[in-house]
Fold:
Amino acid sequence: MAEKRLTRVEAKARTREQLLDAAARVFAAKGFAGASVEEIAAEAGFSIGALYSNFAGKEDLFLALMSERAATRISDTATTLADWHDGAGQPWRAFGQQMAEVADKDMDLAPLQAEFWLYAIRHPPVMATFAENVRHRLSDLEDVIAVEVAREDGDYPEDLPARLAVVVSALFTGMVRQRRIDPESAPPELYGDALRWLFRGAKNE
Amino acid sequence: MAEKRLTRVEAKARTREQLLDAAARVFAAKGFAGASVEEIAAEAGFSIGALYSNFAGKEDLFLALMSERAATRISDTATTLADWHDGAGQPWRAFGQQMAEVADKDMDLAPLQAEFWLYAIRHPPVMATFAENVRHRLSDLEDVIAVEVAREDGDYPEDLPARLAVVVSALFTGMVRQRRIDPESAPPELYGDALRWLFRGAKNE
DNA sequence: GTCTATAAACAGATAGAC
DNA sequence: GTCTATCTGTTTATAGAC
Structure:
């Protein structure tokens, strides 16, 4: 791959991104309070000075990570969702499998989001923007669910997709958590089975 | 209430309990790495010395809290579960309501358990005992679910209650999390509705 | 823009008094 | 058994060199 000559602003932007990558890894591994700016800078291959030249401090770096990267992951997930129900036979099974695979592939994501959640609980003003992020993700999920629900069941309460989106999201979060505690108790098929039960049970009630 | 004269060992045990209570509050509020032993001791009304006389250090205090208090909460929950399905009309609704109420009542519990989970992920040997705790809770839940499933449906796969227990537990954890982000999106009724969908959908499949 | 060196504050843990 | 005083290492953040 050809190395490109970078302008001054591009170089700085690249440093910033590398620091954010490193921060994601270190915050996931050590937590917000447990991570040190020195370790993050070193993980990125820079010194403390470079970090402070790009961010106001540890808190600013963490918050930048929360708003910039959490959002990215979320739209990835949304794309995955949109793809899924092409499969003819067992849509839930395939969907559940994908959910589990995504979680297994990026092992940093769940601890990092737990850190975000804890930080937001402890800093109420931050929770407002965090909640807005989550509402966006739930809205994407709701759209996908609305299509699926309408497909099999012409008549349903108008708020059912929104409510199902919350439940599916909560279920997914909890399953990922449980899979880290005891993988055998939360096999990939169980994700799909749970979804199938949920949608079957919500139908025509 | 009459003050009782305490023996030496009773006094020490009392100090220990007060330190554990304080630790639960401070660890929930600040996290493991963010909390200081000085603040925990002060919150309990003691000095640093008293803390070190009862625990080997911050880590030991945290682990004691994890094994002693997490277990207590769990058996409380199990008792709550056992009570629930006496109500004739809407068992799921009542159960969901109770789940939400318990979570709302003790606001420290969810952040503290998140701290335990993160700590266990970062200290694999600890995860083994944490997982054992969780398996116990799931086993209790499974027993309750098995009774309920058998009530309506004579013939079901033998592993269904165990699988449902994992799903219900994951759902509950995720809903509590979501309720802290955006309470309106996770009203108490939704807990019960989700359970009803789940059990309806798992029936006779 | 990034690096090195350093300042200033703080934390976990210990020692000895009571 | 608990408290006060202190030691030691680490942390965030800054200042000035390049």
Summary: DSSP finds nine helices and no strands in chain B.
